[in-house]
Amino acid sequence: MKTTPTDAIVDTLLALVNIPSPTGRTHRAIQYIVARMNDLGGENMTVQRTNKGGLNVTVPGRDRATQRVLTAHVDTLGAMVKEIKEDGRLKLSQLGGYSWHSVDGEYCTVETGNGQTISGTILATHTSVHVYADAREQARTEENMEVRLDAPVKSEADVHALGINVGDFVSFDARAEKTAHGFVKSRHLDDKASTAILVELIRYLVKTNTELPYTTHFMFSTFEEVGFGANSGIPEGVREYLAVDMGAIGEGQATDEYCVSICAKDSSGPYNYDLRQKLVALAEQHDIYYQVDIYPFYGSDASAAVEAGADLIHGLVGPGIDASHAYERTHEDALSNTFRLLYHYVLSPSL
Whole-model pTM? Predict the structure, then answer.
């Protein structure tokens, strides 16, 4: 490949993170990807929505019997309205696995059943240090968190009058920004960073008329954060399944914000050894900065597919992302390195 479309990846990422798509309410993000595919006008590329609300983009290859899947998920962390309190505040039920303290003070948006949106802020019930003796120590748990709506509400009836009801979706503001030194900081980089990489990889392959050795399916799933993203609808003939998600950063981890992280094992167990070693060899052959790592509290679309009974060679890679499931950050180098590894992977011989 001549150049990596890093700027395009960042632009797509910034567009995606600003499209609310908590698990169960992802249609706008999928519509965005469909529009980006449709404006390519690729005659041989097929774009198909799934019954679960996801999207499969298929790029045919020379060998159509042996096939591959690359997947990323567009669903993000979020919440649903669990209860409307007597004073007009909202109690929440989590969508995805995050700690409540990571969203304490975060701006959010409630989407009503008729499509209206009302902004608000997620706060602990005992936030004011001038009123509550335990404001600093109060546990940030579901029971102790609430949404303060940016509307003149003083009662449950006032909230209902706005059209808000139990089961309405709540999205967290992304607060996305690209810095002068090439960092992208935002909520929802998990997994919109990898989604942006796959979108631009497809566009690069089609625009450059790159012929793939095998028919390759790019699956954009919508329920990964709750554990069953792309474990169904896997096309017949798929042998290799590569999840493209975030690389987890923290104490004891090799992954950083500049590398493509290759996962050897997560909470589901080891990923396929031969595929992992192949990805390492490709990275070394093409001078791509990578790290091999173990993610102790993690699962992916690939592991969900295997756990559901799919007979697949499965792997997991992704850009290194700091502070996962909180206010996250990565660097454009990690996006570029992940893109380059995936490009060489889709052109490589099958195992």
Answer: 0.97
